[in-house]
Amino acid sequence: MMVRNPIVILLLGLVPGLGHWAAGRKGKGFIYAFFVFGIAAGGFLLGVGANEMEIFAMGLVVAFLVWLLNMLDLVIYLLRYPNGKPAPEHHAAYPLHGPQSYPSYGAAGFGAAANGAPPPPSAFDGSANGSASGYGSGQSHGTGAFGPPPPNYGIPARQDDAGERFLTILLSFIPGLGHLSLGLMQRGLTFMIGFFGLLTMILFVTALSGEGGFLVFLGVLPIIWLYGLFDAIRMVQRKQSGEPLLDRSIMEDWDDHRAGGRRSRLFATVLSILPGAGHMYLGLQRRGLQFMAGFLLSIYLLDTLELSLFLFLVPILWCYAFFDSLQMQSRYAMDGFVPDVPIVSGLMNQRKWLGLALIAMGLYYVGDRLLLDVFDVFGLNYWAHELRYYFKTGVTALLLLGAGVKLLFGGKAREGLAQ
C-alpha cells in the first residue's frame, strides 16, 4: 500500500529502504535495505572473525554513506513528486487541468482555429455561431457551436500546496531556511543567527576556558530548532489559507503579545528550563531568585563537597521549579497578577547567618589554597589530601545534623504554639 503523505515517507526513510517501499519504489527499497544492512552485518562478521574491530568500523562508515545516498534519492523523489508519481497512461492521455485543444473538430465539420488553438469560450455559450466567429461552417451543436465545454475548461492548475509545505518543512531542518524560502527574511535570519550564534559562542567559551561544563547549554539548541520548525509550519499554513505574512522577528511578536501588559506563556515555559528564570519573567523576582540560587548552589556544593549520594536532589529541585512555574503561569492567565511569595519566607531577616556562611566559605578557600602550598613545600601531599577529605566529611555531617535538629525541634515548637 502506497503512502501519499511526503512527511510520513521521509520519516520512514530513516529506516533504509522503507521510505522507498512506502512510496511504491519497492525495487529501490529492497536494494538500499540490502546494501545498508548487508554491509553493516558483513563488516561485523569480518571484524569478529579477524578480531579486528576496525573492519567493523569501516563497514559502518560505508553503510552510513549508502544510507545517505538512500536519503538523498528519496528527498529528490519527494521534491519532484510530493503527491506521488502519477500513472503514465493517465498523465499522458488525460490532462486534468487547463484548456484543451480539439484538433478533430475540423475533420468533424465544426472547424478549428488557426495553428490548432482551442476555440474561445464564446463558442460554447451560443453567443456566436461558427460562421460569425470564424470557427467552422455555422452548424449548431448543443448550447454553442462546439457543444458543452469540456470539464475544467479554462481553469488553471491548482497550486501544489503539499509540495510547498513539504519543501518548507524539509528546509526548516536548518533553522531559518524554511522562513527564507517563504520570503520571511527577517524572521528567518533571527532563527538562523540565534541558533548558530549560540552554538558558536558556547563552543568558543568552552574552548577558551577549557571547562567542558559549558557544553550543558547545548541543550537549549534543540528547543530553538523545534520552535523554528513548528513556526515555519505555522507560516506556510497561513500562506496557503490566504492570510498575509508579516516579516518580523519573534521578539516583535512577543512585544505585541505583551502590549496589554500580558506575558507570553510560551516564552515563560521556555525560560523555566533554567529554574527561576520563568518566575522572574512573570514578575516573581524573589521566588525566582530563590529557585535559581538554590538550584545552582546545590550543584556547586554537591560537587565541591563530593556528595554524589545526594545528586538525586538536583532533578527533584528542577522538576519542582519547572512545575511551579507552570502553575504560576496558569494563575497569571486567569487573574492577570500573581503575588511574589518566596519559597523560604523571612530569609532576608537572617542576614547575620548568611553573612557568617559567606565568611566561612571565604576562609575555607583561603585556607585550602594556603594549606596546599605549605604542604607541597614540605612534601606532605598525602596529608593535605587526607585533611581535605576529612574536612569535607565533617562539614557535611554538621550540615546534616543541624538540618535534622532544626526539623525535629522546630516542628515541636510550632506544635506548641498551635496548641
Automatic annotation (TrEMBL):
Region (Disordered): 131-154
Transmembrane domains' residue ranges: 29-48, 55-79, 166-182, 189-208, 214-233, 266-284, 304-323, 353-371, 391-409
Source domain of life: Bacteria
Keywords (A to Z) from UniProt: Membrane, Transmembrane, Transmembrane helix
Bias kind Gly residues: ranges: 133-145
The name this protein goes by in its record: Multi-tm2 domain protein
Species of the source: Paenibacillus xanthanilyticus
Source lineage: Bacteria, Bacillati, Bacillota, Bacilli, Bacillales
